Amino acid sequence: MKNGKFITLGIETSCDETAAAITADGRQLLSNAINSQIDIHTEFGGVVPEIASRKHLENINSTIDKALKDADVDIEDVDLIGVTYGPGLVGALIIGVAAAKSIAYACDIPLVGVNHMHGHIAAAYLEHPDLEPPFMALVVSGGHTNIVNVPAYNMCEKLGETRDDAAGEAFDKIARVIGLGYPGGPKIDRAAREGNKEAVAFKRVYLEPDSFDFSFSGLKTQALNYLNSERQSGRKINVSDIAASFQEAVVEVVADKAIAAAVKYNQNRLVMAGGVASNTRLRELIALKAAKHDIEVLKPSSILCTDNGAMIATAAYYAYMDGDRAGFDLEADPALQF
Q1: Where are the beta strands (DSSP E) in the chain?
Q2: Which residues pair with 113 in a beta bridge?
């Protein structure tokens, strides 16, 4: 405790960000330290798991120290440690879990393992102090595209998921092919602002009626075939138009399904979460569609959309208050489900 407030240290190492944060009483963000590896992995056109793990090992202690220092908190003040234990890259997860268990053991601090996807949803609590379940959540990232019903703080009912590529993964692949490079999501977003979203009639894939699942592999193939055809014909490719048209085909389906789920389950609030939730066109389109149904859309700032320790600390706090505890046998689970 510090100043009568419950202090949580959150640790996140599921992919290529080494992150740690301090929260007070679950909702007050005191610090949010993130050591990103984007510049390192850009050289390779994507995340290299072995390099990510090595960098986490190099940076984990200094990142935790920075989070404590920025929050003006000593380790003796920490009441709880929350750590991502899945899903993610196994080597990366192991570093975070090992660090969390070591500190918890050495300092006799309770430990909670957090599902990375639950953490993304919990990020909304930090910037929307009045938000409480129930609500609908849309989690869109490089590895996941999910629609989730959240009836209580520690309950997540997955209604839909991608059957192949996630939205962010599709953006990364097309960005690489049209020469924008990595990370593809933000670069597609920027390029699309200068393009015509109706330039290319890419298909919208909705799957079966009433399904909340997604599929982007066919759209990706259509885009690749279109680009190959244009190049073979000697026609110049307008990168901005391709980015805008492809982005629209992705976000239109995502927005439609998210709103449809909220309407079906009578939820008047929709929480956006995950890295792709910061996509400007997705935010704009969901806001427009939500307004027609009087649905409030809650969007964390971009720094809380990306992987961070703050969301893990908040998720851990509510899990702990509900009686959740992890033992020192906690292990990384790269294939952890909702």
Answers
A1: 7-12, 17-24, 28-36, 80-86, 111-115, 135-140, 145-152, 155-161, 269-273, 296-298
A2: 83
Which tokens in the block code for residue 181?
A: 């490079």
Q: Is the pLDDT of residue 125 over 80?
A: yes
Q: Which domain holds residue 264?
A: 132-300
pLDDT confidence bin for 37, thresholds 50/70/90: confident
Which pLDDT belongs to residue 323? 96
- Is residue 41 scored above 90 in pLDDT? no
pLDDT of the residue at 46:
79
172 lies in the same domain as 292: yes
Pair 295, 286: CB distance under 8 Å: no
User: Is 44's pLDDT higher than 80?
Assistant: no
Same-domain status, 42 and 101: yes
Rounded distance, CA 327 to CA 323, Å?
13
Distance CA 25, CA 217 (A): 42
Amino acid present at 227: L
Q: What percent of the chain has pLDDT over 70?
A: 100
* Judgement on whether residues 83 and 170 belong to the same structural domain of the protein: no
Q: How does pLDDT run across 130-181, given as a tens digit for each residue?
A: 999 999 999 998 788 999 999 999 999 999 999 999 999 999 999 999 999 8
Residues 267 and 182 in one domain: yes
Answer yes or no: is pLDDT of 195 > 90: yes
* Residues 6+ away with beta carbon under 8 Å from 58: none
**Distance from C-alpha of 107 to C-alpha of 119, rounded to nearest angstrom:** 24
Instruction: Say if residue 44 is exposed, middle or buried (CB neighbours under 10 Å; 0-12, 13-18, 19+).
Output: exposed
Q: DSSP per residue over 225-281, as a string?
A: HHHHHHHHTTPPP-HHHHHHHHHHHHHHHHHHHHHHHHHHTT-SEEEEESGGGG-HH
